[in-house]
Specification:
Blueprint lengths: L12 E3 L7 H15 L10 E7 L4 E5 L12 H12 L5 E8 L11 H14 L4 E6 L4 E5 L17
Parallel strand pairs: 4-5
Antiparallel strand pairs: 1-6, 2-3, 2-4, 5-6
Helix pairs in contact: 2-3
Length: 161
């Protein structure tokens, strides 16, 4: 007897450039780009910037921060989301834009640890976060909520109390 199959399909919106994005998202890409330019990535030379739009209208930026005890640095997404959580507790993130300075046909997506951090923030606030992913060249992808990028995500509900 063969096992039951479960197929998971993701859908992202694809834009050719920032001119096709809604103004709010294009602005976040610009803010993330500014943050990317200040990344501290002397080891990987992989600069990443992130910008969050909070429900209260505040924009929070972050960039990757490496460390000589590589890989104990922090990704741009988590820098921004943890700062938002510490400075604006309970305020939901509407959108996060992430950009990196690589030449690629498609954007690079948040790593697994960042996906889990975004998932935790969505679960805490009960609201989906729009994720805008870009490189300095190439197309831009948007996803409506982290479940698109992290199916079967881990949740605090699984932890015994």
């Amino acid at each position: 007897m063969s096992p039951e199959k479960l197929q998971y399909v993701i859908t992202v919106d694809v834009f050719e450039n920032t001119k096709q994005l809604p103004t709010e998202e294009a602005t976040l890409i610009l803010e993330a780009t500014k943050a990317m330019r200040n990344a501290y990535a002397p080891y990987s030379k992989f600069n990443v910037g992130a910008a969050l739009l909070l429900e209260n209208g505040k924009v929070i930026t972050g960039n990757n921060q490496e460390n000589a005890a590589y890989p104990s640095g922090m990704c741009a997404e988590r820098v921004a989301i943890f700062y938002a959580g510490s400075q604006y507790p309970g305020v939901a993130v509407k959108t996060i834009a992430v950009i990196c300075d690589v030449v690629a046909d498609q954007p690079l997506t948040p790593c697994g640890a960042c996906r889990q951090a975004i998932a935790e923030y969505e679960q805490t606030t009960g609201k989906k976060i729009k994720i805008v992913m870009a490189t300095t060249t190439g197309k831009i992808y948007t996803a409506n909520g982290i479940e698109t990028l992290l199916p079967f995500m881990f949740s605090g509900k699984y932890i015994k109390k």
